[in-house]
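Lay summary

Proteins are chains of building blocks that fold into shapes. Our project writes down both the chain and a compact code for its shape. Here are two examples, one after the other.
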Amino acid sequence: MTSNPSEHGKTAPTLSFFTSPLSQEIRAEGEAKGEAKGEAKGIVKTKIHDILMLLDGREVPLSDTDRHRITSCTDLHTLDRWFARAITAGSVAEVFGDDVSDGGQ
């Protein structure tokens, strides 16, 4: 690491890398990935909320195990499938259908 003299006669590390175009590009890529992950988590959380609200509004009974299965799922495709089924389902068994995997557990 290169050093520059400071006004007190000591050397300070050169920080030019942290402001270089390469470091700015790396930082921007990291920020974009973080934003995408946060957005995906928000979509999953919203979909879970929507499924629970729909089932509650339709008065479909949920056991604690069923509720946990829904709230712990992190796979958006599975949640989308459950949501579509919940629109017409008369029971939680119809929501889960033939799903063997919870797609995210």
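And here is the second example, written the same way.
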Amino acid sequence: MSEKKLNFEETLSKLDSIISEMGNPDITLSDSVTKYKEALTLISQSKETIENLKKEVESLGSYDSN
């Protein structure tokens, strides 16, 4: 089952939650690695979102100058 893609704010919230969970001294190594992989995926999605929005804003700037 595929999960729906989170919006940017949801992604940041989820990353914050993962950071908190990983800071728990009782987390197992296996769970820590799983959370780390999840965080890497979320970071990648965030970078993609930022890049897409940056391009959109830049295109709006070029539209205004025409």
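What can we say about the second shape? The chain has a mean pLDDT of 90.
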